[in-house]
Amino acid sequence: MKFCLCLVCCRDFFNIMLKQSITVSNKSLGLFFDNPIIANQDKKNLISKVFAEHVSSTVLDFLMVLVDRGRIKLLRNVAEKYLELAYKLSSITVAKVQTVQSFSPDQEVALIAKIKAMTQSDEVKLIVEIDEGLLGGFTVQVDSKIIDASLKGKIRQVASHLDVII
Questions:
Q1: Which residues, 6+ apart, have CB-to-CB distance to 162 below 8 Å?
Q2: Of 107, 82, 104, 105, which Cα lies nearest the Cα of 23?
Q3: pLDDT of residue 68
Q4: 29-72: per-residue pLDDT in tens?
Q5: Sign of CA dihedral 156, 126, 75, 146
Q6: Rounded CA gap, 102 and 99, in Å?
Q7: Beta strand extents in the chain (DSSP E only)
Q8: pTM for this one?
């Protein structure tokens, strides 16, 4: 039971962290954590101030270990891998979607239904990323499968038939 509770606490923390971009990919925070001149104790103090009220003691201890081992700059990668494993353990299929503009609630429900049918899973979590470079449409990545329903992909496909490089 304790493991399941910790799994939920960590998953919630990493979900929030990735959504809010409270990670070392944040430029100023990344520079702070990457700076070898700044003492580990100062880094720990910052983590305590920022996260202490929002996370369990287990997650806070984990962040402190990352600082001690010089791995705090890998926090985003750790979070992504952790969520991938947690979702797999919970039988949740994660679909990464790139689109030009955000979906309406009806479109999102329809896309989730299609992905559920395609993957034969009970639950699907969409990770939506806005990418204006697609020109129109969207792409969906589930595991190693990619469905390209974007205008950019269609243009690339036509260009390959015409032996033109874009």
A1: none
A2: 82
A3: 92
A4: 778 887 889 899 998 998 888 877 877 788 888 889 989 998 88
A5: negative
A6: 7
A7: 92-99, 123-130, 137-142, 145-150
A8: 0.59
Q: What are the b/e assignments for 18-48, b being 16+ CB within 10 Å?
A: beeebbbeeeebbeebeeeeeeeeebbeebe
Per DSSP, the residues of 12-51 read HHHHHHHHHT-STTSHHHHHHHH-TTS-HHHHHHHHHHHH
Fill in the DSSP letter of residue 121.
-
Give the sign of the dihedral formed by CA 127, CA 123, CA 79, CA 59: positive
Whether the CB-CB separation of 75 and 61 falls below 8 Å is answered with no
